[in-house]
From TrEMBL:
Primary localization: endoplasmic reticulum
Keyword Protease in record: yes
Catalytic reactions of this protein: Cleavage of hydrophobic, N-terminal signal or leader sequences from secreted and periplasmic proteins
Organism: Macaca nemestrina (Pig-tailed macaque)
Name of the molecule in the record: Signal peptidase complex catalytic subunit SEC11
GO molecular function: serine-type endopeptidase activity; signal peptidase activity
SUPFAM superfamilies hit by this protein: LexA/Signal peptidase (SSF51306)
Amino acid sequence: RARLYFLDDVPQMNKQQLYYQVLNFRMILSSALMIWKGLMVITGSESPIVVLLSGSMEPAFHRGDLFLTNRVEDPIQVGETAVLRIEGRRILIVHRVLKIHEKQNGHIKFLTKGDNNAVDDPGLYKQEQHSLEKKDVVGRYEVLFLLGLFVMVHRE
């Protein structure tokens, strides 16, 4: 069971110190929220920052890498790295577009695969789904930060 050591000092604080600490904490939270929302507006992505959680994209990207994503309306291209929301899965997936299939009516479906995976992704998709569509793309890879390692260390 985790112990919250920072709470040990609360009984020794007077009301003014406690009020100051609570106010500081709220300012930090609201600043983080404003930065997140600002990035959502700038990038047009519902998830502007994504941490790569697995080694499926090695050697190009490593577990813990942090992506700044961008919502792009241009048609997706083979070889692009996309951040995907797979129906029925809680976490986002970062994989590369492997094949594109364009129907007669202009509707585009595509297949993805992790660079380090032996097989393509239909096993990750919902049952009976064999490809993805534009609606499944949360964003496309824009910039890579190594700070994601910090996030991974604190998650585990």
